[in-house]
Amino acid sequence: MKSRMSDRIVSVKITMEEGNLILTALAECPFKTVFELIGKLNQQAHHQFAEATDKTAQKPFMFTEQELLLTIKALGKLPYEHVHQLLDKLNTEMEHQHRTHNDKAGSVSHSYADR
Questions:
Q1: Residues β-bridged to residue 64
Q2: CA–CA distance, 26 with 71 (Å, rounded to integer)
Q3: 80: Cα separation from own chain's centroid
């Protein structure tokens, strides 16, 4: 059985600052489209950074591919100078994990967001 895009999980390592930037971007989106993702990210952040002394450390966060696409689109609406490094990181990770999945499945990869 072939997995749907929204079912696949993508792990992305982000810092607390990057996580806050993601939450800022998502907060600008319609509530009904992002409230579950915001709650999920807050829960992960609590577990990842609750006892962390180094708030600049990168911690793994899990997204479905659909959630990561939503995150990338939301970040794309913020000023470029604030988000370009994070957007590049998320796009690269998404493409890498998609390519890895497709190599196993024998499919052709494609890009998720305009750079």
A1: 9
A2: 7
A3: 17
Output the pTM of the full model: 0.76
Residues pairing with 61 in the sheet? 12
Q: What pLDDT digit, counting tens, does each position of 48-58 carry?
A: 888 777 878 99
* CA atoms of 114 and 91, how far apart (whole Å): 9
Do residues 72 and 91 lie in contact, with contact meaning Cβ atoms separated by under 8 Å? yes
How do 59-64 and 9-14 pair as beta strands? antiparallel
CA–CA gap between residue 9 and residue 15 (Å, rounded): 19
User: What distance in Å separates the CA atoms of residue 26 and residue 75, rounded to the nearest whole number?
Assistant: 8
What lies within 8 Å, CB to CB, of 99 at 6+ separation is: 109
